[in-house]
Amino acid sequence: MFFNKTRVLLAFLLALILTFSFSMFAAAQEESDVSPDASEVSEEISEESAEESAEESAEESAEESPDESIEEESVDEQSEDEEQIKPWMGITIIGGIILVVTLIIFIMILRKTPLGLKIAKFFKDFKSELKKIVWLSRKETVKQTGIVLMTVLIAAVFLGLLDYAFTQLIQLIG
């Protein structure tokens, strides 16, 4: 009995660890794919100048074989294809991880493991608490939203006036 509980708990913990590690890996990979606009422009310029110099040298030397130019074009096409795939890779990994974790939880609930029963109880309690919520009518919601917007507007004007006053004060002193 204790061994089964431990095994289920370890499987659940392993799934959680894998979920977090894959999502962190995907996020880090997406962050490394993003580069500043200035560096992209400079890279594009350097690539264009490299291509122009390659074209000039190709025109000057008639010894270049057609096979070499075909290889260069295929490498460029491959790198473009890889760049198009990269943004979807992280989303696909995270989606797969979420699917696996969901399936593990579902299986635990169906097998009525202790952890599965606790999860099922949580969702039943959650559903019953949602039924207890008293929602505002449309009229009350619009009224409350208006009050919030007016409060934000008044606070923004007040802080703007304070900022202006302190700026003028600092200019007088300095």
Structure description:
With 174 residues, the protein is mostly helical. The chain has two domains: 132 residues, no CATH class; 41 residues. It is built from five helices and no strands. α1 packs antiparallel against α3. The model has no long low-confidence stretch (mean pLDDT 74).
Main attributes of the structure:
5 helices; about 170 residues
SSE arrangement:
Layout lengths: L1 H32 L3 H24 L5 H45 L3 H18 L6 H36 L1
Helix pairs in contact: 1-3, 3-4
Number of helices: 5
What structural class should be given to the helix and strand makeup?
mainly alpha
Distance between the termini: 78 Å
Strand content: under 5%
Radius of gyration: 30 Å
Shape: flat
Q: How would a textbook summarize the main sheet?
A: none
Helix content: over 70%
Number of strands: 0
Q: What is the total domain count? A: 2
Mean pLDDT across every amino acid position: 74
Q: Return residue spans where pLDDT drops below 50 for at least 5 consecutive residues.
A: none
Order of helices and strands: HHHHH
